[in-house]
Specification:
The chain has a five-stranded mixed sheet, with no helix packed on it. It has a four-stranded mixed sheet with strand order 2-1-4-7, with no helix packed on it. The protein contains one helix and nine strands, in the order H-E-E-E-E-E-E-E-E-E. By secondary structure, it is of the alpha+beta class. The protein has two domains: about 1-30; about 40-119, Cupredoxins -  blue copper proteins (Immunoglobulin-like, Sandwich). A hairpin with a 7-residue loop joins strand 8 and strand 9. It has one helix at about 1-30, and strands spanning about 40-45, 50, 55, 60-65, 75, 85, 90-95, 100-105, 115-119. The termini are far apart. The model is unreliable at about 10-35 (pLDDT under 50). The chain binds copper (II) ion.
């Protein structure tokens, strides 16, 4: 009987430690950031268009493209420096570390065009 009590005590202690470390991990993940001074800007892909089609960001910022259409689109740089194929609900993120204007399009639907202006 004594050994059972001790076993339960150790089990409880172990669960407390696991529980505590689990909470700690959750706290860390909610405070994770991409870095100092970096902002993320969302561009929705919907109804065969990038929205907003033109976006102005600061150097070091990120753009997140999210495909909300029911079919596949791509986010392809006109200069071929990047290309992301996105199925429904998928997103792609890119950080822009150089200033300039970066035109992109959908390789599947050439009428879909967008520009990222980095200042
Ligand atoms: Cu498309």
């Amino acid at each position: 009987m004594k050994t059972i009590t001790i076993s339960i005590f150790i089990l409880c202690l172990a669960l407390m430690i696991i529980g505590a470390s689990g909470c700690q991990q959750a706290t860390v993940s909610t405070t994770t950031s991409t870095g100092a001074g970096e902002n993320a800007h969302a561009v929705e892909i919907k109804n065969f268009a990038f929205n907003p089609s033109e976006i102005t960001i600061s150097k070091g910022d990120e753009v997140i493209w999210l495909n909300k259409d029911a079919l596949v689109h791509t986010v392809s740089a006109d200069d071929n420096s990047f290309s992301y194929k996105l199925i429904t609900g998928q997103y792609a993120t890119r950080q822009f570390n150089a200033t300039g204007e970066f035109a992109y399009h959908c390789a599947i639907h050439p009428s879909m065009k967008g520009t990222v202006i980095v200042r």
